[in-house]
Fold:
Amino acid sequence: MSKFTEAIKYVGTFKFWKELVIMTLGMMVCAAAVYYFLVPSKLIIGTISGLSIVLANIFSHGEGLSIYIMAINAILLILAWLLIGHEFGAKTVYTAMILGPLTDFWAWVMPWENISNPNLTTGSPSVMGDPWLDLCCFVLLLSASQALMFSINASTGGLDILAKIVNKYLHFDIGASVSVAGAVICCTAFFINPFRMVVIGLIGTWINGLVVDYFTASLNRRKRVCIVSKDYERIREYIINHLHRGCTLYEVIGGYSGEKSIELEVLLSKDDFSNLLAWMKENEINAFTTANNVSEVYGLWFSTKKRKELQEQMDKR
Structure:
C-alpha cells in the first residue's frame, strides 16, 4: 500500500477527525490568548506570535498580525524541511498555518478594543488593565493549549520548530533550545517596549515552560498502587478481568510480624483507582493500600479502545 493510499485511508478514520477537532479547538484557545492578552498591551513573550507583534508594530503600525504569523511559520516549516528533515508532519503544518487566520477570527468575533481598559501603570491598552494580569491569563491559556496539543502528539508550531533547529546545530538540549529561542525573541521587544515590559516578557517565557510541564504531567498522570492483602488473588482477578490492566506480584515479609505476604503493584488511571477502592469496600476486602502519582508511563499501556476490545473478547468466552 502506497503512502498516498495510507493517507487517504487515515483521513476517513474517526481518529483523524477527532484529532483535527482537538487541534482546531486548541489553536483557537492559543489564538485567543495571543489576540486578547499580547496584542493590546504589546507584551512580548518568547513565541513566534510575540515576534510577529514586534514586526507588525515596526513595519505596519500593528496591522496585519495574522500575515506575519503565517509568513514566519511558513519560513520555519521550510527551514525545518531543509535543515532538519521530514520530522514535521501534517499536524505541525496545520497548527502552524491556522494560528494567523484564527487571530483574525477573534478580531471579527469581538475586537479587543471593545473590552480593553487603560493599563493602570502606563495608560496603554490592556484587556485586564495590568501587564502582569495579561501575562498570567496568556500563560494559562497558552500552556493549556500546548498541553492539549502534546497529548495527541502535535504542537503549536512556531517556537517548537525554531527550538529543533537550535537543538541540531548548536547542540543544546531541547529544553535549553526553547529557552534560548524564547529569550532571543523576547529581546526583540526592545524595539517597541520599555525595559520593564521586556523583563515581564522574559519572566512570562520562563513561567510558560513551568506551566506547560504542569499541564502535560496532569494530562498523563497515573496512579501507582501497591496493595498488601490476603485476598490478593481476588484483587488480581478484578484488575485483570474488569479493569483490564496488568499487575505485578511480589513476595514481601512484614517487618513487625515477620509473616510472608503478597504485594500487588499496578498502574491505574484515576477512574480505575476509584473503581478499585469502591469494589474493595463493597466486598469488605481488608488491605493495606498505598498510591502515588506517576507523571509519565512508557511501554504497554492499554488505551480505552484497546480495553473495550479486551472486554468484548472476555464477553465472548
